[in-house]
Amino acid sequence: MDWLLILLGCIAGYVLVLAYIRTYKPFPRFITLYGPIIGLKTDQVGFFDYFRRYSGFLRIYGSIGVAMVVIVSVAMVVMLLLSVNLTVELKPEPTPLHKPQNIFLIPGINEFVPSTFAVWFAFFFTLVIHEFGHAILCRVEQIAVKSMGVLLLMIPIGAFVEPDEDEVKKASSWPRMRMYGAGIINNILVGVISFGLMVSLIGMAVPTQEPVVVGVYKNYSASEAGIPIPSIIRTINGEMVHTSQDVSDILNGTRPGDTVIVGFDKKGEIKDYSLNVSPWPEVLGARESGFMGVFYYNGQGVIDTVQSLFSPLGIFMLLSVPFNPTMEGQYLRILGFDIADTEYYKVPFPGYWELIHLLFWSGFINLAAGLFNALPLVPLDGGFIFREGTERILNRRGLARYTDHVVSFVSTGMVVLIVAIFTLPYLFHM
Question: What pTM did the predictor assign?
Answer without folding.
Answer: 0.86
